[in-house]
Amino acid sequence: MTDAAIVEGRPTSRRARVGATFAYATTDVRSALLSFAVAGSHEIVEEHLLVHAAGREVTPRELAGDHGTRLHVLDEVGTGWLEVTYEAIVDITVPIGDPTGREIDFDRWVFTRPSRYAESDRLAPMAARTFPGLTGVPLVEAVGRWVFENFSYVSGSSRGTDGAVETLLAGQGVCRDYAHVVVSLLRALGVPARLVSVYAPGLSPMDFHAVAEAWVDGSWHIVDATRMAPRETLVRIATGRDTADTAFLTTTGGLTTFDRQRVHASLVEGEMPEDDHESLVRLA
């Protein structure tokens, strides 16, 4: 049983169709890890997965990760083409302003530490100067608003190895860069924060999307400093310290070359909401 989004005291029913199709040329690739399936925290109505590797249809092994993350492993990918098609229909379950999530001590400590792309230790002095005296919800809202107002969203402007420090110096980036800065600043100020990869109905241009989550008011709440898609429509894929934990494709051995990718996410039931960025939104 899941909770529906609550707007003006009434349950709001929304259903989304999401998915991705992509292809990579592979040479002597031993194995691949895919992270694109809707998280188990959502109610999945329908789901279809088709994978071809080196000219043959293969069935990946599913691994259950933390926070509902579902990973798919392919062994002996080989040489040829890795082609994946994934489709799902999902009941979106986004409680708004409902601080009923359980605090888990282990997670709170993990998501307060610095990580590969979220160098909160290096940004602590800057964070303290920029947000003096703020705590709790006002602090989380201020960080999200500051990143939105001080950065430019520029496709292709960052490298896959860039972390929050490089993004701050550049003053621009894409969704993962915005999320890394938010996560880093919040951790630097003692607020547990993590990164979530999502499908995002309403996003333009359409792609996989990344947002931050902050532990505030007794549960995890979304902070999307890009403000490019309504938070109430987001569909969780994977959750981790930063994009090192949420990459949609990881391979071992050999060579992998990108060919094509298409991501889609749209509502098939319910109206597209208008996001109120002064409210708290919780992701299923």
Automatic annotation (TrEMBL):
Residues 167-227 form the Transglutaminase-like domain. It holds the Pfam family Transglut_core. One of its GO terms (biological process) is proteolysis. One of its GO terms (molecular function) is peptidase activity. Keywords: Hydrolase, Protease. Gene3D superfamilies: 2.60.40.2250, 3.10.620.30. The keyword Hydrolase applies. The keyword Oxidoreductase does not apply. This is Transglutaminase-like putative cysteine protease.
